[in-house]
Amino acid sequence: MQVPSPSAREAASMYGTAVAVFLVILVAALQGSAPPESPFPYRIPLDPEGTLELSWNVSYTRELVHFQLLVRELKAGVLFGMSDRGQLEDADLAVLWTDGDKAYFGDAWSDQRGQLHLDPQQDYQLLRAQRTPAGLSLLFKRPFSTCDPRDYLIEDGTVHLVYGILEQPFASLEAINTSALQTGLQRVQLLKPDISVPALPPDTRTMEVRAPDVLVPGQETTYWCYVTELPGGFSRHHIVMYEPIVTEGNEALVHHMEVFQCAAELESVPQFSGPCDSKMKPARLNHCRHVLAAWALGAKAFYYPEEAGLAFGGAGSSRFLRLEVHYHNPLRMQGRRDSSGIRLYYTATLRRFDAGIMELGLVYTPVMAIPPQEEAFVLTGYCTDKCTQLALPPSGIHIFASQLHTHLTGRKVITVLARGGREREVVNRDDHYSPHFQEIRMLKKVVSVHPGDVLITSCTYNTGDRKLATVGGFGILEEMCVNYVHYYPQTQLELCKSSVDPGFLQKYFHLVNR
Ligand SMILES: *[C@@H]1O[C@H](CO)[C@@H](O)[C@H](O)[C@H]1NC(C)=O
Ligand SMILES: *[C@@H]1O[C@H](CO)[C@@H](O)[C@H](O)[C@H]1NC(C)=O
What we know:
The chain is mainly beta. It has helices at about 5-20, 385-390, 500-510, and strands at about 40-45, 50-60, 65-70, 75-85, 90-100, 105-110, 115-120, 125-130, 135-145, 160-165, 180-190, 205-210, 215, 220-230, 235-245, 255-260, 275, 290-295, 300-305, 310, 320-330, 335-340, 340-345, 355, 355-360, 370, 375-385, 395-405, 410-420, 420-430, 440-450, 455-460, 470, 480-490, 495-500. One 2-acetamido-2-deoxy-beta-D-glucopyranose binds near residues 39, 57, 59 and 66. One of its GO terms (biological process) is dopamine catabolic process.
């Protein structure tokens, strides 16, 4: 980051103040008037208590995002913005503050120490500030890209939103001490793909998979496991859509949910509803790993393309399903009850193609290793031309969604498609990837893969806090580099990954140790 000379900084600050004064808010006496009708398809609570609620929409043609921030119990102001990994230092912020007399809104940035500065260029543009029965509602817009080197570039993939609550007036923006505020972060995909919703078949039926009346433990993290089964004689169906069902009032508590199907070989799976790490959990649940549906905070319904569906039921597939709900309870609230889950929409009229899931990336082996104390170490896995030549139908496959996966040190994941020795297109990329936010994402554009194509998946890791090498494996302290791609028509190829050849690795170490 470029540090301007003191005089430039002073000038910037003066200009910024003028802009802020110009934007002095008239908190109109509109108390009691109905809240305006919502043009925002997306909504998310920012803090665990839900006092800050963000709604937004995306205009791809104008390349900007409209944000509506609802502040339920306004004290003396609020900070909202974005940063690389959710820290309040080096963040790009919109700030609403008061000096006790007037209220101001401005576009600001924080330096490495968390000190705030007004931006010379005001890119968060306030459109409306209104008191509603629910609280203060701020409407502002922000372009994806601002050309201001200090601003955050809004890209596809994860965005770390940050917030802070101002409890008292401050004489100036610069006087705000961020380390003394109540702050936090929320991860979200801001730039959701703008794809049209496919029509559902007329005979669509629904099934709710949810754990009834869970008493959410008063601890920060709980993975709740619940077993349920399909009705007897349930024949083969296609899932064509699914959506979350979140118990009202628990929107900030339910972080993500997945529905898995158990292995077909299991004759039966015992009933269970409890923490996934409980000693009472039946061991057989470890064989329930075939993903049928996955949802994470901020995501909406998931639709299969009109020509494909995900098969379940019938011969050769298990009747048993496992629901996993991740509760994120940083305030350690006691006594909360929850019955969240996922509603599956399915049809007996099978669509033309079965959808499938293919795992791309690196084989989990100890030779997939990351040295300690590395800030950005890259490992790459290949789905080679030989594999795609052998396994894909002549007309190819079509990838429409993707779920990236690493363990704790993963920071970026990208899959690109190469053809004829050249990179052709990006299948999916997340430059702000977080292992704490894994959702199945619809691709903006379906990617067709033909026999002979190569799929290259690269993962970037940060092992700055580790003393020993990190190796590939299933353990949470071991690593993975995976992209689960959702595609049709389904093929026999479930895994298309590579690993480092131990022989070559030995030769390499022999060479470097010489
Ligand atoms: C987003 O919301 C703003 C503010 O209500 C509205 O003017 C705009 O038309 C909306 N844009 C889209 C793409 O929906
Ligand atoms: C900011 O707040 C922190 C924590 O309350 C305090 O230790 C620090 O001295 C404050 N910094 C300034 C410049 O006031």
